[in-house]
């Protein structure tokens, strides 16, 4: 059963009351409600999931900020503190995969594990001559958002679904915030800070995601974290929570239960 925390303005979405605590950090095109079917599948007796909106997204559209990874981390820690969580795991999708590593560094040993779904590494993402203008123009251009969604899911999914995802991202984010967060996740390299961190890490990628692929994970997360492992989801691209939600949640729960 979903509920908001009483007394908090723009309170994060909390699902479940179970003992295993999970902070969920969304992607660039997402929001606290942008997790596909995954929240509907959460076992609320075993887990408590907190789905955060970043400033400028979802319930926090119109909220001013610097729109940085450090700010996401500070807001996330304030949210888990408001829940009274002493320790927790973090699940991050895409941009949230970068943010979850900032939370790890800022949380002072409170993070039990990290699970990244097509996560952006701590190195950021270098763009080439083709992808740079595509991503930088996405704040204003609906066509760019569509092209990014189509590209990162392997050019194989329904036009209807892609259009709905574009509309969702437009409805759920302020253009100024959306534009600024691109620099935060793509242009920030703090890999030296995470190098050698012993936290358990699982990175999950879709076989049809050409941007944040298994090869990228092997060159980044698996090099940075000695206790990192990789899983490739069949029949998924960059948005496994929409494309293969049951398979994704099963992977997430196995990881959480092993912590």
UniProtKB/TrEMBL annotation:
Q: Does the keyword Cell division apply?
A: no
Q: Does the keyword Hydrolase apply?
A: yes
Q: Which UniProt keywords apply?
A: Hydrolase
Q: Which Pfam families match?
A: Abhydrolase_6
Cross-referenced SUPFAM superfamilies:
alpha/beta-Hydrolases (SSF53474)
The organism's place on the tree of life at top rank: Bacteria
Report which residue ranges the record marks as coiled coil.
Answer: none
Q: Which Gene3D superfamilies match?
A: alpha/beta hydrolase (3.40.50.1820)
What is this protein called in UniProt? Esterase
Question: Organism source for this protein?
Answer: Modestobacter marinus
């Amino acid at each position: 059963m979903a509920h908001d925390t009483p007394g908090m303005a723009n309170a994060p979405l909390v699902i479940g009351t179970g003992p295993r605590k999970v902070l969920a950090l969304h992607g660039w095109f997402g929001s606290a409600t942008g997790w596909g079917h995954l929240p509907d599948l959460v076992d609320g007796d075993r887990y408590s999931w907190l789905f955060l909106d970043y400033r400028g997204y979802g319930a926090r559209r119109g909220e001013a900020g610097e729109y940085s990874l450090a700010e996401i981390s500070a807001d996330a820690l304030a949210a888990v503190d408001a829940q009274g969580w002493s320790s927790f795991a973090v699940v991050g999708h895409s941009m949230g995969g970068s943010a979850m590593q900032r939370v790890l560094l800022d949380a002072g040993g409170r993070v039990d594990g990290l699970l990244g779904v097509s996560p952006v590494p701590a190195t950021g993402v270098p763009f080439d001559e083709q992808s740079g203008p595509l991503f930088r123009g996405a704040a204003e251009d609906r066509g760019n958002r569509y092209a990014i969604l189509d590209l990162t899911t392997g050019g194989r999914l329904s036009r209807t679904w892609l259009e709905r995802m574009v509309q969702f991202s437009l409805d759920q984010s302020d253009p100024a915030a959306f534009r600024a967060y691109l620099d935060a996740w793509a242009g920030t390299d703090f890999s030296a800070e995470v190098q050698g961190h012993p936290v358990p890490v699982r990175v999950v990628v879709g076989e049809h995601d050409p941007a944040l692929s298994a090869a990228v994970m092997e060159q980044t997360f698996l090099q940075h974290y000695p206790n990192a492992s990789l899983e490739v989801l069949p029949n998924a691209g960059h948005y496994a929570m929409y494309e293969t939600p049951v398979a994704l949640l099963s992977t997430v729960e196995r990881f959480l239960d092993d912590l």
